[in-house]
């Protein structure tokens, strides 16, 4: 019996060690695997680098900004595979090590990063093409209307923003009188500075052109409603 228990302990220890070991794939294998359902693709470069082109449907958090990284990574599912990359592999390797040590069951790195991806002739999404920013004048006009307006400062590549999508959808279904103004957290830099929004997501409510409430981060529907209707209990 003692030998059996010892064997089980050794086997479990070995499994745990294997789970912590580095897993990496070349561009061809990486591309094939991220097409499977349930895969989370994670870009740990800066927002500026991300906007020069990224892998399909990739979420983003800057690994060099520790607080931002830790805030966003908590919205990934630890039980689902995470396929991670950066420019050349250094940052993603460090980020993957941290994630494995903090409970992520399956983190796979892109060997050589996005540089290797490009060299293999693989396609990128979202290549910056001189998109026109939302101007401050346009923003002020949009939120200056009578009635309630909700400004949603977010981005498709932001994990907590993705977490908020179904909550926002339900909110607007239930409150059709509230107008939505979208500010792109990766593009509309001037507006973000003007409204003092530095984190994603940020939600700002206006009533008849006057700000009545704001909050950064993920909220439940009831909290979002209370923010928009301050008298709501």
TrEMBL record:
CDD domains listed in its UniProt record: RHOD, TRX_family
SMART domains linked to this entry: RHOD (SM00450)
Gene3D superfamilies tied to this protein: Glutaredoxin (3.40.30.10), Rhodanese-like domain (3.40.250.10)
GO molecular function: transferase activity
Keywords, ordered alphabetically: Signal, Transferase
Annotated signal sequence range: 1-19
Domain (Rhodanese) ranges: 35-126
Segments forming a coiled coil: none
Pfam families: Rhodanese (PF00581), Thioredoxin (PF00085)
Family matches, as SUPFAM superfamilies: Rhodanese/Cell cycle control phosphatase, Thioredoxin-like
Classification via InterPro entries: Rhodanese-like_dom (IPR001763), Rhodanese-like_dom_sf (IPR036873), Thioredoxin-like_sf (IPR036249), Thioredoxin_domain (IPR013766), Thiosulfate_ST/Rhodanese-like (IPR052367)
Highest taxon listed in the record's lineage: Bacteria
Domain Thioredoxin, chain residue ranges per copy: 110-233
Listed name of the protein: Rhodanese-related sulfurtransferase
Organism listed in the record: Chitinophaga niastensis
